[in-house]
Design brief:
Layout (H helix, E strand, L loop, with lengths): L27 H17 L2 H7 L6 E3 L9 E7 L5 E14 L3 E4 L18 E2 L1 E8 L4 E8 L1 H13 L19 E3 L6
Parallel strand pairs: 4-8
Antiparallel strand pairs: 1-2, 2-3, 3-6, 4-5, 6-7
């Protein structure tokens, strides 16, 4: 099982490398790795299992964070009704962005970054994204906004060798036009 010791950290140059596309259909070995990414996200949401297996709660995880440098990421967001929004996207392409920006008021975090950075990360409030939906086993094209948009942009940045703090701005630089998104607990 993957755990925090399996993570590629920002102290390692390879985390800043670009990920490659995955051929569809996926090979069995690739599916096994994607399932391990998925398992990490799900297990990290359970406090007892997270402690037992040395996991940090997360809302997203990119393949490159687990040394799998292919274009894939998982999103697992706990919603208000205690259900989860789960997406696993292979070969994502973010092809349109809104002009309107948003940010998480408490800032972003990252499993690959062990130190805390002050400030916020301006993200596009809406994105249009397409790719291969691993869970549905089909190609999709969608418009996302709010938290899922922010998480997708964060994970998409990983696939392009960028970490959140490279986009971070200090709190005194927040544009009043940006829409604040409240505290995110399971990040």
């Amino acid at each position: 099982m993957l755990n925090n010791n399996s993570l590629v950290k920002d102290t390692e140059k390879r985390i800043f490398g670009k990920s490659s596309e995955l051929p569809i259909p996926l090979k069995k070995e690739q599916e096994k790795i994607i399932e391990k990414l998925r398992e990490y996200c799900w297990q990290s949401q359970d406090a007892k299992k997270a402690k037992k297996y040395n996991l940090t709660p997360c809302v997203g995880l990119a393949g490159c964070q687990m040394d799998f440098f292919y274009k894939v990421f998982c999103i697992l967001i706990k919603e208000e009704n205690d259900t989860f929004l789960e997406k696993i996207i292979v070969n994502p392409e973010v092809y349109s962005y809104s002009y309107q920006k948003t940010y998480i008021t408490t800032g972003e975090g990252c499993l690959s970054v062990d130190v805390s950075y002050e400030g916020v990360v301006p993200r596009h409030q809406k994105i249009k994204i397409r790719g291969y939906d691993y869970l549905e086993k089909k190609y999709f094209d969608a418009e996302w906004s709010g938290l899922i948009s922010i998480v997708a942009q964060h994970e998409f940045d990983h696939l392009n060798g960028m970490l959140y703090y490279q986009r971070s701005v200090s709190s005194d630089k927040i544009d009043p036009e940006w829409i604040p998104l409240g505290d995110v607990k399971n990040e």
